[in-house]
Amino acid sequence: MGEPGEGPSAERAEAFRLRAVEFVRRMRGASQPSLLRCEDGASYVVKFRNNPQHVRVLANEMLAGRLALLIGLSVPRPTVVDVPPELIAASPLLQFELGTRREPCAAGLQFGSRFPGVPGRTLVVDFLPDRLLKDVVKKEPGCFLGALVFDKWTCNCDGRQVIFYRLQDREGSSYSTTLIDHGFCFNDGDWNFPDSPIRSLYPRRMVYGGVRGLDSFEPFLSRVENLEASDLADCVRGIPEEWCGEQPEELTRLVERLYERRRRVRQALIEARDSSLAPFPNWR
């Protein structure tokens, strides 16, 4: 897990921009992202402005990633990736499949999420059998609980996505985790908060076995509640205006509502406890 206060300052928000130099492969997902190697030698999962979902997916990913880092969650550091037109032209697979139609990915500034390791040498999975998942929860007990606090706050309208990774040639070694895919925080391109008690819960309920009460969600719960308005303002700096759709000024209102919501997360967790899914069997 990261430490609180690791969110980007205004200077770092502007500076953390990389140029893509090589297409590696296409990735799974409704936004049809691609894995690109950048000038720093690392690879990034890149979502494009003209993706099949919504342009605001990029703004959501950047803002949510910065907010997650701010409260100490394990997420790949969000990055602005500049994809040159010549790379698009030289890479036939940098295109979207839209039914029977094909459309090239857009050049210019896109969203990038750093791949955890070196492609081909790092084993990355999104499912573990119960035995291995229990080991992960024991090793990183705050991962799923912090994610639930975060998802309730940001109204993540997609299922919680977690990936597990380790070096491919070290069979038997433990997995590390990181939270990915925040494009449907703030309800995708609508930038509103249709809350529901059963939303945002991880489908494998065993990850919540250690919950005994609200204290189990610390320190993430208090970190969200104690954020200053200036902390949130810093997290939107440097987000390209073209990622925000036709009304980019709505990003300011979105952040204002996030600030207002930070003290409602405790009640949201209680409502999840009392829901028909009863996800916290040991919370008395």
Q: Give the topology string: H per helix, E per strand.
A: HEEEHEHEEEEHHEEHHHH
Summed up, the helix count is 9
Mean pLDDT: 93
Number of domains: 2
Biggest sheet, open or closed, and with what strands and sense? 5 strands, mixed, barrel
Estimate the helix proportion, in percent. 25-40%
**Strand content bin:** 15-25%
Number of strands: 10
**What would the principal axes of the Cα set say about the shape?**
globular
The strand order across the widest sheet is 1-2-3-7-4
Low-confidence stretches: 2-15
Oligomeric status of the shown chains?
single chain
Structural class comes to alpha+beta
Q: Taking Cα atoms only, what radius of gyration do you get, to the nearest Å?
A: 19 Å
Distance between the ends: 27 Å
Q: Which helices and strands appear, and what pairs or packs with what?
A:
Layout: H1 10-15, E1 17-26, E2 34-38, E3 43-47, H2 56-70, E4 78-83, H3 85-90, E5 95-98, E6 101-104, E7 108-114, E8 122-125, H4 130-139, H5 142-154, E9 161-167, E10 176-180, H6 220-225, H7 229-236, H8 250-261, H9 265-273
Parallel strand pairs: 1-4
Antiparallel strand pairs: 1-2, 2-3, 3-7, 4-7, 5-6, 8-9, 9-10
Helix pairs in contact: 2-7, 5-9, 7-8
Structure notes:
The longest helix has 15 residues, at 56-70. This protein has 9 helices and 10 strands. The protein has helices spanning 10-15, 56-70, 85-90, 130-139, 142-154, 220-225, 229-236, 250-261, 265-273; strands spanning 17-26, 34-38, 43-47, 78-83, 95-98, 101-104, 108-114, 122-125, 161-167, 176-180. The protein is of the alpha+beta class. The chain has 2 domains: 10-114; 122-273, no CATH class.
